[in-house]
Design brief:
This protein is of the alpha/beta class. The chain contains 21 helices and seven strands. The longest helix has 16 residues, at 77-92. It is globular, with a radius of gyration of 28 Å.
């Protein structure tokens, strides 16, 4: 029996690797590491089917050091200890050129104790760690380990990259060539793949297996849609459907459709999704998409996360549903999200601008003599606890980052802010606030 198409076409070198040019292109950091043979510890973070495991196997085929592989799904404490012992012996051997590399797939599934055991090996130079995860390492990997391993983000494949993969499959794979494939349209194929190379190849596998021997294999939008509807994929909380369902869930809440949001929530619950993962997404939604239009949304989302962590499933479905409906029905604003992104872009552009002297702390007499804190106006000494003064670096003046969205809460806040910084002139004379 033939192995799956995704395995038959797995690249063996960087020259055959499609996608992730920011990491493996001519100037990519991972390409430079692989070609030099000096691999530093890093973690690959990205959705399924974007090449994390393939990159690890290319490293294994390229570097001239011992390479070990563990899957956090199937490996227990004993297996981890055994591999680390072998790595320790390799590292101490005079015949080994460089540190052994240990690749751990699904590293987020390791508990804190297992990750702590890896930390000691990485810190002491016994092993170079390469991890792969579909979950946000900030939540799933302990902080000391994160500080010793660079995180590289892998992106879903673009349409032109999916086209390259399709062309390669039709050209290189003997099983597909035996059918004489005719591509009339690839729109549905790419849409269902959703940036996932493995999913694209699995769909081709399905089309091939459902085409009788001796019959031409046709790829068009109608055929792809019909075949996939006849073979619906089950929800896999660690696989291909995970990102599709959570995407639909997020967009339904953002789009203010509580019924659709609850439906996708039910799909995740029925599929065994981690309740804390759902609760974290609700927290992010409350800050990113509801924001200042209804600040209470973040409080409820945080309370939901606490409640779910305390009670788990099945009862946890109730606060999750309550929060989902509340967020879907709330007014929406992404002004805080846009403001911090705009400010970060300005920081990247302008660098470390000096803090104005009057805003600096002056804990010593020397700093006071240098002008630190001089002429600072204490807001509580003024009417309304407000006084106009320069708070930004001099080079920026009063650059605006926050722009209110069209909702009652932000319109009121914006009006108050404007009246403070730009009060109505008295008797035709300007005011201190008019400088802003």
């Amino acid at each position: 029996m033939n192995p799956p198409l995704a395995e038959r076409l797995r690249p063996r070198s960087l020259d055959d690797y499609i996608g992730q040019t920011h990491l493996v292109g001519p100037c990519g950091i991972i390409r430079r590491m692989i070609e030099s043979g000096r691999v530093s510890s890093f973690i690959l973070w990205g959705p399924p089917g974007v090449g994390k495991t393939t990159l690890a196997k290319i490293i294994a085929n390229t570097v001239k050091v011992p390479f070990y592989t563990l899957s956090a799904v199937t490996s227990g404490v004993k297996e981890v200890r055994d591999v680390l012992d072998r790595c320790r012996r390799d590292a101490e051997s005079m015949f080994t050129q460089g540190r052994p590399v240990l690749f751990i797939d699904e590293i987020h599934r390791f508990n804190k104790a297992q990750q702590d055991s890896l930390l000691g090996a990485v810190e002491s130079g016994i092993v170079t760690l390469v991890g792969a995860t579909t979950e946000n390492p900030s939540f799933e990997v302990i902080r000391p380990l994160l500080s010793r391993a660079q995180v590289y983000t892998l992106r879903p494949m673009e349409q032109d990259e999916l086209q390259q993969l399709l062309d390669r499959a039709l050209e290189k794979d003997e099983v597909l060539r035996s059918h004489g494939v005719r591509v009339e349209s690839s729109t549905a194929l790419f849409r269902f793949a959703g940036g996932d190379a493995r999913k694209l190849l699995n769909i081709l596998d399905l089309l091939e297996q459902s085409t009788p021997q001796g019959e031409e294999m046709v790829i068009d939008d109608k055929v792809v849609t019909e075949r996939l509807q006849e073979n619906p994929a089950a929800y896999d909380k660690n696989g291909e459907m995970h990102y599709d369902i959570i995407s639909a869930f997020i967009k339904s809440v953002r789009g203010s459709d509580p019924d659709a949001a609850v439906y996708w929530l039910a799909r995740m619950i029925a599929g065994g999704e981690d309740p804390e993962f759902i609760a974290r997404r609700l927290l992010i939604l409350a800050a990113e998409d509801i924001g200042l239009a209804n600040p209470n949304a973040l409080l409820l989302a945080n309370a939901t996360f606490d409640a779910v962590r305390k009670i788990g499933f099945p009862e946890g479905r109730i606060p999750l549903a309550e929060c989902t409906i509340y967020l879907a029905l709330s007014p929406k604003s992404n002004s805080a999200y846009m403001a911090i992104n705009s400010a970060l872009a300005m920081v990247e552009k302008t660098g470390d601008l000096p803090v104005p002297l009057h805003l600096r702390n002056a804990p010593t007499s020397l700093m006071k003599e240098m002008g630190y804190g001089r002429d600072y106006k204490y807001a509580h000494d003024y009417p309304g606890n407000f006084v106009v003064q320069q708070f930004m670096p001099d080079e920026l003046g009063h650059k605006g980052f926050w722009h209110p969205c069209d909702n009652q809460a932000e319109m009121r806040s914006a009006a108050l802010q404007n009246s403070r910084w730009n009060p109505a002139p008295k008797g035709g004379e300007g005011t201190e606030g008019s400088e802003k």
